[in-house]
Amino acid sequence: QVQLVESGGGLVQAGGSVRLSCAASGRTFSVYVMGWFRQAPGKEREFVAAISRSGISTDYADSVKDRFTISRDNAKNTVNLQMNSLKPEDTAVYYCAAGRIAGRIATGVKQYDSWGQGTQVTVSS
Question: Minimal CB count within 10 Å: which of 85, 97, 110, 120?
Fold first, then answer.
């Protein structure tokens, strides 16, 4: 498994932007499909965005499409999530995840093998 550490969360006003980063350990980062998930209090963990091993293919939850952008740098073992036009309903703990998945993209929680500790994003109205 790969070790993942998120950073970049915090408190932001509605309409603002936040950039989350996830640093991965190990030298096999490029074999992992990477994803971002979030979990709000009292709710199940949900898919936010995913990116293929090469970085060419991406997928987003409908609720964040056109506002969030996922990217990765295989040379630096990092994956980022740029979040713009934030809304109070985006408030959650955001998790970075890695999966050794046969397909290009994965959106299911159970498809991912390794998880970070999470970073809190709070959007005030």
Answer: 110
φ/ψ (deg, to 5) at 103:
-80, 180
Tokens of 47: 């898919």
pLDDT at 113 over 90: yes
**Which residue in 118, 65, 63 sits closest to 93, CA to CA?**
118
Task: Find the mean pLDDT for residues 18-44.
Answer: 95
Kindly write down the DSSP assignment for every residue of the chain, as one continuous string: ---EEEE--EEEETT--EEEEEEE-SS-GGGSEEEEEEE-TTS--EEEEEE-SSSS-EEE-TTTTTTEEEEEETTTTEEEEEE-S--GGG-EEEEEEEE--SSS----GGG--EE---EEEEEE-
- Residues 44, 67: Cα–Cα separation, whole Å: 22
Burial of 89 (0-12, 13-18, 19+ CB in 10 A): exposed
| C-alpha angle 59-64-65 in degrees, rounded to nearest 5 | 55
- Cα gap 91→88, rounded to integer Å: 6
pLDDT at 1: 81
